[in-house]
Amino acid sequence: MFDFSQRISQLPPYLFAQIDKKKREKIAQGADVIDLGVGDPDIPTPQPIVEAMKKAVEKPEHHRYPSYEGMLSFRQAVAEWFKRRFGVEFDPQKEIITLIGSKEGIAHFPLAFVNPGDVVLCPDPAYPVYKIGTLFAGGEPYMLPLREENGFLPDFRSVPEDILKRTKIIWVNYPNNPTSAKATREFYKELVEWAKENRIIIASDLAYSEMYFGEDKPPSIMEIDGARDVAIEFHSFSKTYNMTGWRLGFAVGNERLVAGLGKVKTNVDSGQFQAIQEAGIAALNLPEEELQRIREIYKERRKVMTEALKEAGLEVYPSDATFYLWVKVPKGYSSAQFVERLLEECALVCTPGNGFGEHGEGYFRISLTVSTERLLQAAERIKKLRL
Ligand code: PLP
Fold first, then answer.
1. Atom of ligand 1 nearest to the CA of 238
2. Mind listing the pLDDT tens digit for each residue in 196-254?
């Protein structure tokens, strides 16, 4: 009776519907299915964060509307954390904004800067929200392929002149979901130079900044000279502190870009519950050992699963960041076909690479966010695969 808007109707079909159906069938047959599909940490939120929330929730001042841009004390804690982690200073009043999870900010940002017909450069494969936020704003997504031979970095210099002229924003995300690739400071430096030359906004998604397992900590684009003139960066508490359910994030960067996002948000939401922001302050001040403990768990899982995949003859993209493994499907299979075989023979749910865009075809993603015990079982099943 009521037609969906064109905005909704233009959305791509839900690619995982078939997998979900097969997963349900498999479970109905009595199979012990292990789901390595979703990137939602199984490890609980660290206790000091939960305790801070318990105290904060008792305070009547938090029961009223929060401030739109977030509590100043939260934004100050963000500024201090950013200085400690990346050596970059921000004015908490003007260059930092609280988000209701980083997805919220990523989806809303194009509404502040994109007019109908403007182009937004989106990576492919990628987290789908860059493209969808663009479409909702009436913009035209132009997909930049991430190819293995380029370390899954976009070749932004290859964008044709006529597209470039209409481009408003470029999205980048490193450490990357789904490929687990990392970016170097050199890449960011070239990107900032190019963006300045072409008057393009850089929107960087750093949701996985703390999910590293080697010596090299992933950099922020904000460390680069001149980035503050053109860039905004989105951060999340979800993965770092196992807080996906809490919905907390923030954006930092260029004052005007932060203000534009703030203008949209003022009109569509009323900020995040202040008790959650207080819990966020506790998270930002967590002792480093606590995060190291979490990293050690993922590091071990990454090792176990990588070895199992290699033993089965599969090729894993080498990385020491994110809790994802990006794996090539064997010759002769499409991503969807191989993921189906993993479900049939091993009762494992994995995400086909093409679910993240056409350039994800030929790969599948494994998420390491199930208990180590389950992951070991999954690894045993994979080792028995005959390819
Ligand atoms: N960015 C990337 C690359 C993600 O993978 C995710 C979640 O999976 C998000 C952003 C959103 O995280 P949240 O909204 O929980 O902060």
1. 15
2. 999 999 999 999 999 999 989 999 999 999 999 999 999 999 999 999 999 999 999 99
> Residues 92-134: pLDDT tens digits?
999 999 999 999 999 999 999 999 999 999 999 999 999 999 9
CATH dotted code for 6-43+289-383: 3.90.1150.10
Pocket-forming residues, ligand 1, beta carbon under 6 Å? 39, 101-103, 127, 173, 177, 205, 207, 236, 238, 244, 249
pTM comes to 0.97
Q: Are 345 and 333 in contact (CB under 8 A)?
A: no
Residue identifier of the C-alpha nearest atom 1 of ligand 1: 207
Nearest residue to 101 (alpha-carbon basis) of 255, 286, 5, 241: 241
Best residue among 38, 45, 97, 103 to mutate for probing ligand 1's pocket (most ligand atoms within 8 Å of CB) is 103
The CATH number corresponding to 47-284 among 3.40.640.10, 3.20.20.70, 3.40.50.2000, 3.40.50.460 equals: 3.40.640.10
**DSSP per position, 175-189:** S-TTT-----HHHHH
* Angle of helix 335-346 versus helix 372-383 axis, rounded to 10: 100
